[in-house]
Amino acid sequence: MSSRVRSNVWNYFTKLSCEKSKCDLCGNLISIKGGSSTNIRRHLKTKHPLIDIDSPRLTTTDRRSRSRSPPQMSSKDQNSDRSTSEVIHVAGKVASEVASTSKTCLTNYKKSIPSQGQQQYRITHFTNRPMSILKCKEIDKQLIKLLASDYLAFNIVENTEFKKFVNMLNPSYNLPTRNTLSQNLLTQTYNVLHEKVTELLQDAEAVCITTDAWTSITTESYIAVTAHFIDSKCIMRTVLLDCYNYKDSHTSDHLYSEISRILTEWSVHEKVSAVVTDNAANITAAVRLGGWRHLPCLTHSLNLIVQAGLKEISHVHVKIKAIVEYFKKSSNATHKLLSTEVQMGLPELKLKQDMPIRWNSTFYMFKRILKVKEAVVSTLALLNYDKYHISQDEWKTIQLATRILKCFEKVTVDISAEKNVTLSKVIYYSRALMRSSKMIQEETDHPSEIYNMLQKMIEQMTRRFLKIEENISISEATVLDPRFKRQGFCASHYFEKAKQNVINAASHLNIRSEADEKN
């Protein structure tokens, strides 16, 4: 019996009676009927798996004796003694805290292990798992999207720092070469998107086309054709069908041929409900040749109207533009302006420069210089800049011009939206702009330049918006918009005509549906 009691497992238990024994590590009572150590051995293995049962437990005297003896042990003995001491240290700490679960014991054991000056890593830290082909293709796809959406050069993959960055994110990923990007991945991505857009256009019942042409800074002519439609989920979609360098003459016949070619390639030639263009004679004639319904671009009309009005204040416009260019070309003047703004408690804002072909850039230029007017005047005085002097009347002219242009800017931003239907707003906006311009003109004490500016813009709006209610598409869209209906028209007979057109179209659809049911 005594030999059984002296088993190593008894070093971790205190015998309370012939039937019960208490675990020194967690305090649980274990049955030992018949003097067997099976239960307590099972308890140690399941609840305290870190305890080495086969190693003898050292007493306090043994530990003191070893600590006083000369350190003449082998490295193997030292490691064994360190390991045993660690276990004893853990066992004593856990026993004193009387932990109730193995999870607590394991946590305390990990926390109590003394630092060896080395961090333990997973084995995967020392090995690079090969990337799956699927994952590699997904990253390639995202890379080509990044380059295309942000107009980045393909040679970015040859940049040393970019390579380091990608390697830190995932060492298993190998960047494609520049040629692979341009010759393979770009083509693959285009084919996938081409197929996706083709499917969307096939499901579309009707498509509206917008066209635009411009000349780049390198005097190259470009044409873009965009399709707008509502998909099967009633979501508005916009896709670019083509954008290319156009080298032929801009005659109506050539333009018609190009538009027709693009529509045929995408199989939407018979689905075109309308074509939106500017008011140039050649493109409107090209639309007529195709037999498509033409819609004038409102933003283009607004641009022509505002440009005509700005000519009436050109002398003030030239002065403001020259002052802005002076600050843009002089870093010293710009720095002085910013410091002056800080001293005056104004926000640190740089001046904005306008572009001749974009009237709204002129509006933003006027708006910004008015916001920091005091700082600009003070800075020009400090720098002894007297080439262009802005009088109080001229500042007033700029202020009133900005007020007028603000109405046109709001309409331009709203009408240019791609995710909302804007055709039904055309009549309403044309009336609102005309009304607001006349109200400002009727105000007294305006400089003559502002009066002339408003008069010119009103004349342009009268000419360009005179027959806008006669446009069938615009009038029908206005009738169908619950925000406007009758209130959207100036003349009641145009409303009645548009209303009857909608009723006839609805009746025709009803007849067709009944015929389909009979068949």
UniProtKB/TrEMBL annotation:
Name a single GO cellular component.
Answer: nucleus
SMART domains this protein is in?
ZnF_BED
Which keywords appear in this protein's UniProt record, sorted alphabetically?
A: Metal-binding, Nucleus, Transcription, Transcription regulation, Zinc, Zinc-finger
Q: Which GO terms describe its molecular function?
A: DNA binding; zinc ion binding
Q: Which InterPro entries match?
A: RNaseH-like_sf (IPR012337), Znf_BED (IPR003656), ZnF_BED_domain_contain (IPR052035), Znf_C2H2_sf (IPR036236)
The annotated regions of Basic and acidic residues compositional bias extend over 49-64
Q: Where in the cell is it found?
A: Nucleus
Region described as Disordered: 47-86
Instruction: List the Pfam families.
Output: zf-BED
- What biological process terms from GO does the record include? post-embryonic development
Q: What is its main location?
A: nucleus
In this protein, which residues make up the domain named BED-type?
A: 4-55
- Which PANTHER family does this UniProt record tie to the protein? ZINC FINGER BED DOMAIN-CONTAINING PROTEIN 39 (PTHR46481:SF10), ZINC FINGER BED DOMAIN-CONTAINING PROTEIN 4 (PTHR46481)
- Name listed for the protein in its UniProt record: BED-type domain-containing protein
